Amino acid sequence: MITKRIIPCLDVKDGRVVKGVSFVNLRDAGDPVELAAEYDRQRADELVFLDISASHEGRKTMRDVVRRAAGELSIPFTVGGGIGSVEDMFEILRAGADKVSINTSAILNPELIEEGARRFGSQCIVVAIDAKYDPDAGDWFVYTHGGRNHTGKRALDWAKEAVDRGAGEILLTSMDQDGQKNGFDLPLTREISREINIPVIASGGAGNEQHFAEVFEQTAASAALAASIFHFGEVSIASVKEHLRAKGVEVR
Prior knowledge:
CATH architecture: Alpha-Beta Barrel
Distance between the termini: 11 Å
Mean pLDDT: 93
CATH topology: TIM Barrel
Pfam families: His_biosynth
Number of domains: 1
Organism: Thermoactinomyces daqus
Order of helices and strands: EEEHEHEHEHHEEEHEHEHEHH
Shape: globular
Low-confidence stretches: none
GO cellular component, one term: cytoplasm
EC number: 4.3.2.10
Pathway: Amino-acid biosynthesis; L-histidine biosynthesis; L-histidine from 5-phospho-alpha-D-ribose 1-diphosphate: step 5/9
Helix content: 25-40%
CATH class: Alpha Beta
């Protein structure tokens, strides 16, 4: 059986880790490399760094963070934010990242998924999807630019297209649940993970160990990601894995 992965996410703004609720009200959570090294010691399975201030200067700052992190970490890590070309991917991978995550740039230029997969391999290309439920339509839709722009694309349709174009993994964030700490969006995660044949990382809403058990027991998610509960010491990687083992969920 394939083991489930637990992944801390570090949202990086101006060289610092920040965390908010539903993408707003950000607060400082520390130095990204120090936090990353601590998660490595805690036996996280992977890490995700997202540059949320991805101007040109933000990308320069992020490359420095990536280089420093690569020197400290023994676990794989993914970097996203402001990656708009194959050259940007190359720079981040050359700095030491194992994978790159693309979101807005993939929507604006879907061929970027194909170009990245062709040059670096599908295993390096993570397509991040920020999805929000529309009760009138009865479906989830994709948003870009940090959750500000409604694309009109249905989340499942876009996930399937991303797979067809060569994505190796989907990082699926529920905007409705982000930072709420009352559980992952199980219906959204279930729909996407059962309809595509690549790993899905569930993101948004983790508040305790049981929420991780629920997303693995009730959906086909391959991994679960969280941020603030790990950063502020509310839940540890060890306690999550211990709880999952007790529930019969295979973890590393």
